[in-house]
Automatic annotation (TrEMBL):
The gene is uvrC. The keyword Ribosomal protein does not apply. InterPro entries: GIY-YIG_endonuc (IPR000305), GIY-YIG_endonuc_sf (IPR035901), GIY-YIG_UvrC_Cho (IPR047296), RuvA_2-like (IPR010994), UvrABC_protein_C (IPR050066), UvrC_RNase_H_dom (IPR001162), UvrC_RNase_H_dom_sf (IPR038476). Keywords: Cytoplasm, DNA damage, DNA excision, DNA repair, Excision nuclease. GO terms for biological process: nucleotide-excision repair. This is UvrABC system protein C. It comes from Mycoplasmopsis felis. One of its GO terms (cellular component) is excinuclease repair complex.
Length: 584
């Protein structure tokens, strides 16, 4: 019996016989040996994921090739499923159950008030997380934290070279509050104090301590420059991104404390199971016997529907952000993680592209394939900005000379009905209405960012220029991730896993480029509106940009913030004009 027939038979059997209860499932090979044990909140849903294709990188070819049968055990509860899983793993010792050991400890600053003294030190292992009054970390290597420790001890525990004694706990609590303010950047008094001391030690030829204070300033700079003000009041946040490629899972990690990025890591692990099982095991092990005590653990919202099963500790802290700054951080981390996957696996090398090209040609029933043209647009509702991008690829990779950015604002102004569908047509028509038209060949294909409606709009634009090239669509799911490739009739096309990742990556790139140029146009428009304000010139504009960095931040700034930079008179002119624009 072929693997495909076995897969179909197993899938049907699971769909009919496996309950939706929590429990443990066992995959078996042709000899009846248990090769993998997993747990699930919903047994049927989790087991079916193994057969539902590569769309979310869940297909695990090596393990699936040996699976011929299954068994399952219903658990009384989710907690009971944990114990059952461990029991079955010990019993069968399956070859595909890999223990994910994550016992790693990184240093922390720890502060403890006891016996009318303040203790300040760095610890690599914290056995009792509740023992200390304040912790900051984990600390990434090469951040010069040991010099900063010396500075903290010297500044807060000594006075004129002598250790401070005979002070009560109230005194030390006040000192600890000052230290907390340093790490949360509520004010810059300590930074200024360090600058003064660096100069003083340098002037007095004590270069050892001058260098130490310089390193202390560098330590604070490094933390400050990565701070995200929108999450400065959210204490400790741990972000994770996961992506599976073949038999490896790539993980990118970021830790923030009071808005400051304090820890970054990129790793990969061997894993032949599905991504859901990996995330469960990885996070459950990650926080086992470690110093970490986050307020929130955050992963992509695409995993929310997977009904992941965590221990009580993780369940109390896990979040799946779907909007706002937390979602933006997750998206950015996912993008960075995906880039690492691409670099490690060299998606874009010549051999892989040749194989991808052959798979696309065969999957789409094409006699030949010359180039791929992929379209996307980006816009802001109720604003004039509208940008279209067309990226072009051939068998050697990205074709820069044929790729193009279209400013479509003039078309948007004349549209009665404004939507992504109409914008798709104008993006395609604008692109074709150029010298590019004469370079298009019959075996070029066009890919819309969207479904049937977007495909039809590109077909209509092609028709206007007497072209009849084939058009396909890359459809995204509710989480704005590539979900499937469809033809002109809306039928899903099955493609190889590596090919899917390639198409997903070029869709992400064209989307990113469209957003980049939209923001660029928006900033240019903002710039124009600033200089239109009577009495505001380039010098004032430069001052504002040096302080706020972007026009968007200027528009969102409070009156008092603008006043600090340009004075009360100009601040009133700018604030009133920008807020008038916003209300319009």
């Amino acid at each position: 019996m072929t693997n495909k027939l076995i897969d179909n038979k197993l899938y049907t059997s699971i769909n009919q016989n496996v309950p939706t209860s929590p429990g443990v499932y066992l995959w078996k090979n042709s000899s009846g040996e248990v090769v993998y044990v997993g747990k699930a909140i919903n047994l049927r849903k989790r087991m079916k994921q193994y057969f539902e294709g590569h769309i979310n990188s869940w297909l695990t070819p090596i393990m699936m090739e040996v699976i011929c049968d299954y068994d399952f055990i219903i658990a009384k509860s989710e907690r009971d499923a944990f114990a059952l899983e461990l029991n079955q793993i010990k019993k069968y010792n399956p070859i595909y159950n890999i223990k994910l050991r994550e016992k790693r400890n990184y240093p922390y600053f720890v502060f403890k008030i006891q016996k009318n003294e303040l203790d300040i030190k760095i610890l690599s292992e914290i056995k009792d997380k509740t023992k200390y009054d304040y912790k900051f970390g984990p600390l990434t290597p090469n951040t010069q934290y040991s010099d900063f420790l010396d500075i903290l001890i010297n500044y807060f525990l000594y006075s004129e070279g002598l250790k401070i004694i005979n002070q009560d706990n109230t005194y030390w609590n006040n000192k600890l509050d000052l230290i907390k303010n340093i790490f949360t950047f509520k004010d810059d008094w300590f930074y200024k104090e360090l600058q003064k001391r660096e100069i003083w030690f340098s002037d007095n030829m004590n270069f050892e301590w001058a260098l130490k204070y310089k390193k202390g300033l560098n330590f604070l700079d490094k933390i400050k420059e990565t701070q995200i003000t929108e999450i400065s009041n959210m204490q400790i946040l741990h972000f994770f991104a996961f992506e599976k490629y073949n038999d490896k899972v790539f993980i990118s990690i970021r830790f923030y404390q009071n808005g400051s990025l304090i820890f970054v890591e990129h790793i990969n692990k061997e894993w032949k199971g599905i991504i859901s099982d990996f995330i469960e095991q990885y996070l459950n092990n990650f926080y086992l016997n470690t110093n970490y005590s986050p307020n929130k653990i955050l992963i992509d919202c695409i995993y929310k529907d997977n009904e992941l099963m965590f221990n009580d500790y993780i369940n109390s802290k896990i979040f799946y952000p779907q909007k706002g700054i937390l979602k933006q951080i997750i998206d950015n981390l996912n993008e960075q993680n995906h880039s690492i996957v691409m670099i490690k696996n060299k998606y874009m090398n010549k051999n892989n592209l040749n194989n991808i090209w052959i798979d696309i040609r065969n999957s789409l029933n094409l006699n030949s394939l010359n180039r791929i043209f992929i379209f996307d647009n980006s816009f802001i509702n109720n604003k004039k900005e509208l940008c279209g991008v067309v990226d072009v690829y051939d068998q050697t990779g990205y074709v820069k000379k044929m790729s193009k950015v279209n400013n479509l604002e003039k078309y948007k102004l004349n549209m009665i009905k404004q939507s992504d569908v109409q914008f798709t047509y104008y993006n395609a028509a604008c692109y074709l209405n150029s010298n590019i038209l004469y370079k298009i060949k019959e075996d070029d294909i066009f890919i819309a960012d969207g479904s049937i409606q977007q495909i039809k709009e590109i077909k209509e634009a092609l028709k206007q220029f007497d072209l009849n090239n084939k058009v396909f669509g890359l459809v995204k799911n509710n989480y704005h991730k590539t979900d499937k490739l469809i033809d002109e009739n809306g039928k899903q096309i099955k493609i190889d896993d590596i090919t899917f990742k390639f198409l997903s990556s070029i869709q992400e790139k064209v989307d990113k480029r469209a957003k980049f140029y939209l923001n660029k146009n928006k900033n240019n428009n903002n710039k124009s509106s600033l200089l239109k304000i009577k009495g505001i010139g380039k010098q004032t504009e430069s001052k504002l940009l040096n302080y706020f960095k972007t026009f968007e931040k200027i528009k969102k700034a409070k009156f008092s913030e603008i006043e600090l930079v340009v004075g009360k008179k100009f601040a009133k002119l700018i604030y009133d004009e920008l807020n008038k624009e916003e209300s319009n």
